């Protein structure tokens, strides 16, 4: 199944038991939807290599985890946008984005720095500090930083949950532009059906 993302995970984390088995296309946006506490973020963290349960994680032809191997998180070509934006407060927007580009592991750049800036509407924000950005602006910078890693897969963990309604409405068109303009599969975790 070279054109699919296949995930089969089972195990326990403390009192929590997870048993997940699914496959999604290597294009477009796939949502992991369900109530809080059902294991969505755990699945995302396992795909990223940040948590480990028994099973298999296959991205197209590449096996990131199975019974014989486990590719560590820093060697997986992913972009991860966390629920809580984790920008470096001491760096400008430009330097936060450059940090993502430096973490691209030598992948040939298929997504150009200037393309990300334009796609996410960041040109006027480049010299600002993250502390002087709105929630939606910070989330767009975090998304840009993840994209500049040149990922084969973008993982988004409830990227809108910390935003108010106005900020959500501000950022949704950028997510739609991302889907329309880039060919990176996205796995989105949410407990909000309206986001799906």
How are the SSEs ordered, and which strands pair?
Blueprint lengths: L3 E10 L2 E10 L3 E5 L6 H9 L5 E6 L2 E4 L12 E4 L11 H10 L10 H7 L15 H13 L5 E5 L7 H17 L4 E5 L6
Parallel strand pairs: 3-8, 6-7, 7-8
Antiparallel strand pairs: 1-2, 1-4, 4-5
Helix pairs in contact: 2-4, 4-5
Architecture overview:
- The chain is an alpha/beta fold and 196 residues long.
- Helices cover 29% and strands 25% of the residues.
- It has helices at 40-48, 93-102, 113-119, 135-147, 165-181, and strands spanning 4-13, 16-25, 29-33, 54-59, 62-65, 78-81, 153-157, 186-190.
- The strands form two sheets. Strands 2-1-4-5 form a four-stranded antiparallel β-sheet, covered by helices on one side. Strands 3-8-7-6 form a four-stranded parallel β-sheet, with helices on both faces.
- Helix 2 (93-102) runs parallel beside helix 4 (135-147) and helix 4 (135-147) packs parallel to helix 5 (165-181).
- The longest helix has 17 residues, at 165-181.
- The chain is globular.
């Amino acid at each position: 199944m070279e054109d699919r993302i296949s995930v089969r995970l089972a195990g326990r984390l403390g009192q929590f038991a997870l048993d997940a088995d699914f496959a999604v296309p290597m294009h477009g946006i796939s949502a992991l939807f369900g109530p809080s506490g059902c294991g969505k973020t755990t699945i995302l963290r396992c795909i990223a290599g940040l948590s480990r349960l028994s099973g298999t994680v296959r991205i197209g032809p590449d096996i990131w985890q199975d019974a014989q191997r486990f590719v560590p998180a820093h060697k997986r070509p992913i972009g991860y946008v966390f629920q809580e934006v984790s920008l470096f407060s001491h760096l400008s927007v430009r330097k936060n984005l450059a940090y993502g580009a430096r973490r691209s592991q030598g992948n040939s750049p298929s997504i150009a720095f200037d393309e990300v800036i334009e796609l996410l509407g960041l040109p006027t924000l480049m010299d600002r500090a993250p502390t002087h950005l709105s929630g939606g602006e910070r989330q767009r910078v975090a998304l840009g930083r993840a994209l500049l890693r040149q990922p084969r897969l973008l993982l988004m963990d409830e990227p809108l949950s910390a935003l108010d309604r106005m900020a959500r409405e501000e950022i949704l068109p950028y997510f739609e532009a991302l889907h329309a303009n880039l060919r990176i599969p996205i796995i989105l975790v949410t407990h909000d059906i309206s986001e799906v």
